[in-house]
Amino acid sequence: MLRPTQLATRLWLPLVGLAIFLTACSDSPDAQNGPSDAGVNDASSGGDSGVTAPGPDADWGTGSDTGSLEGDVWTPGRDANGLVNAESWAKVPGGRWIEVNGTRLDGLDAEVKAKIPGWKDYGSGGWGAVTHAWNAPAADPEGSRAWWVASGGHGDSSNNGIYRFDAFRMAYAIEHLPSDTTAWSDGYKLLQTTNTFTTCPESIAEYDASVEAGTAEPAGNWFYDELFWDRQPTSRHTYSGVVYVPKTNELVMGVRRLWRYARETGQWVYKRLPGDDASNNLGEEVIAVHDQYRDQIIVAACGSGGPWSDSFDMSASKWTGEGSAWNGWDWNGAADTRDGDIVTIFRTPEDPASGEYALVGRYLTFDVKEHKVVTSGLVQFADGLSASDFAGGDDGAGMVYVPPLGRYWVAVRLKTGALGWFELDPTTSPWTLRPLVQDGPIPALSDGKTLVRRRMLWMPKLHAVLFLGSADTNIRVHRF
């Protein structure tokens, strides 16, 4: 059932504050002019893909530029098409992390501003918040690429663009330009200091009007998580809620609502309420998985307002009512990774002294093809490690399965505040967690940040792990 202005309380917005936002925004010329396309069943209006979506790339370039390797910093040599040459990749040593020069995400800033004169990120964190503000990329391991999708949210960043990293190019590119901020009302621009860019008050007003008129529909309707001026999704904390769907070449975002982005046309083409009910929470601590056998997106939100879970049938365009195996408070803040058909969820331990609900290091593996839990349990500790070494309340841990080792690498915030690296061994019963010993410089985020969800990515064609770190730092690669 669709509900009117109760949305405000669902979004942690004080009703008085919401009234102020609506009043301030309705007085602006932008609000009076209205959106570029008010069709309630069209999610594709506005925006620009920014660049032609290539690939996926199949292999390295064949040029002669080998680039350079100085210490642990590699500058790739590329061919005329922008592909890193095979001879340059051959320079990269294995067995340790190597920094890839010229791979900063914030290097796209000038290009975005050239394509959208006057564009500005009104958040407090800028490009850094795209990578730091509880966000994670969607990955296509077989295509050797990954995307940051509408990653920002709350007061951290208003940037709702899509940015792609291509491993065979060792470069970021604009997949879909962010919205033109010069069209926004002054009230919405001020949300950084008063509330959240995830919520657009002008769109809430349109939603409420559609409910009052009896025209609101679960799919395609106005809702708080879209921009009034171009109907694009607002920036948001995506957690692990965005996946790539090879069959249809789409990016699907299961956060706030379910959104579908068609790469072939460079447009957002579909949006639907979670479970067709505005009261359902799909807002925080989301983990989404693509089930290619059933052609479904399995989503679970295990944070504030939850837990809530369901599965969305891509072919039938409907919710099935079947939830996930990782839906519950035990998985709040969990790390996740996927290797083939096996999805692994791991809620890292917390210091027992942090409270009676301190989590104890729970793991689960889910076979997508068989659609069932294969393994679950609580970790044991080794090599002097204990639960008391970990921070309480951490919700930014990341993990990756490394096939050549048959082990998981886990990164999580320690009680000291630093980012710690660990090995999770699935060959023991129960699984064993121990400190990870690494050679050379170890990846870390800038400004002491520790939110590393899904940013360690195994790329099978490279036989390497990528670490997509902070927007203001280069990516790292670890060859095997």
Describe what you observe in this structure.
The structure is a single chain. The chain has 480 residues and is an alpha+beta fold. It has one domain (7-479). The protein has nine helices and 27 strands. β6 (162-166) and β7 form a beta hairpin. The longest helix is centred in the middle third of the chain and has 13 residues, at 201-213. Residues 1-47 have low confidence and may be disordered.
Give the topology:
Layout: H1 7-10, H2 15-26, H3 29-33, E1 68-70, E2 73-75, H4 86-89, E3 97-100, H5 109-115, H6 126-132, E4 138-140, E5 145-149, E6 162-166, E7 171-176, H7 186-189, H8 191-194, H9 201-213, E8 242-245, E9 250-255, E10 257-262, E11 267-272, E12 286-291, E13 296-301, E14 308-313, E15 318-319, E16 335-339, E17 342-347, E18 362-367, E19 372-378, E20 380-381, E21 398-402, E22 407-413, E23 419-425, E24 432-435, E25 456-459, E26 464-467, E27 476-479
Parallel strand pairs: 2-3, 20-24
Antiparallel strand pairs: 1-2, 3-27, 4-5, 5-6, 6-7, 8-9, 9-10, 10-11, 12-13, 13-14, 14-15, 16-17, 17-18, 18-19, 21-22, 22-23, 23-24, 25-26, 26-27
